[in-house]
Amino acid sequence: MTTPTNSHKAWTNKGGHVTGSSSLKLALCDADGQRLWQEQRSWDASDGTGLPALLEQWLAPLLATWHPAPSLVVHRLVHGGSRFTAPTQLTPEVVADLEGLVPLAPLHNGPAQAAIHWLQEQGAGGQALPQWACFDTAFHATLTETAFSYAIPAAWRAQGLRRYGFHGLNHKHVGETVARQDPAVRRLISCHLGAGCSLCAIAISADGIPRSIDTTMGFTPLEGLVMASRSGSVDPGLLLHLLRQGVELEELDTALNRESGLLGLSRLSGDMRALRQASSQNHPGAQLAINVFRHRLLQGIGAMAASLGGADAIALTGGIGEHDMALAGELEQALAWLQPLLWLRIPADEEGTMVRQCLAAQA
Q: pTM for the whole thing?
């Protein structure tokens, strides 16, 4: 049995930010979730025909050559709201319901929905591939009301305005991997550090089941740590101030999502590799960006440790987490007060996690 998975990201930032750039990652996996093949392509997100054209030119020929045909397609959806907390088969009714979640994560859920509709149309003649979705918010469904509630008016909370958390697929993978490798670990801080960054406080039960009890992202993926071009947490009063100055909502949205973070601080790049190189040449913006990134990260790790009542292990994952050795050393030195502490580096595996979850749900 072979299983392809589509992992959609609304935009990517490699060596510099290009407004409107988006990418789609396609992986072919076996029944154990092991990647047999993987590629990533980009398209112009400002062009409404960009993604359908890419799928027609790239994915359609691939599907025609795969024999036997894949057993199912799995899509990564960033936001599942409060309803979608498990792998879900995409019936027409479910797809219609998911449209209502696009405004909560338009840069992510929107392209995923477009790919889902494209595949539905490809199967209109009776050869439709079963489609499933896994949700980055699902792992955080175990957050308590205390952890997910904002201190806002009750009428707003009744609308579902609460903390959902993201990167759950990889945080779950990290938790399960640590539970297998180090059964003595009960309190784990998972650090997903890449273009998007978040922390998760994970409690691991005696039988090896990881559970999210706190996380840094909230209602949207904007909350929390400094990211490649996303701001992370800012004072809401600052945003009110800008609105009163006449800044338009779309301008604010673009600035916070695409022009902030490492890119905004450095005025150079959102890529940590480029910033490390520039910092070594005394570029002040690069140095500021790295310092603010590390400062907020240390604050967040301290907060996750407080939620767990301490920490047995810290796992670094994602592009920065896995490969930035300088950051790993800086964190170990700065967090020496948490000793004894196990430091781990775990490659991200969202695709394999999705495949295994969906095949288990089918069984």
A: 0.89
